[in-house]
Amino acid sequence: KSLYNPTSFERGRRRHAELVKKECGSKCELIDYVDAFWNKTMNAFQYFDNQGFSYFTLGGHLSAHGLEHVRPIYEKICSSL
């Protein structure tokens, strides 16, 4: 069994990108976590780090550890403003 269903995730991801582009245009920055959480060795999402700390809560939201993991994405956006 897999925790990740790539078909439904990709459809939702593409639809969300279309909506953001349509509604916000150039005013919004689309943040994509795929690069941050995709494990190329396993060819799947990595939901936890090498020590077993989860990046997500039970509700599928980023945990405090997950937020620290994606902090560089937000730092890059903020530094370009």
Automatic annotation (TrEMBL):
Species annotation: Caenorhabditis remanei (Caenorhabditis vulgaris)
Domain of life of the organism encoding this protein: Eukaryota
Residue ranges occupied by any SGNH domain in the UniProt entry: 11-76
Classification via InterPro entries: SGNH (IPR043968)
UniProt-listed Pfam families: SGNH
The protein, known as: SGNH domain-containing protein
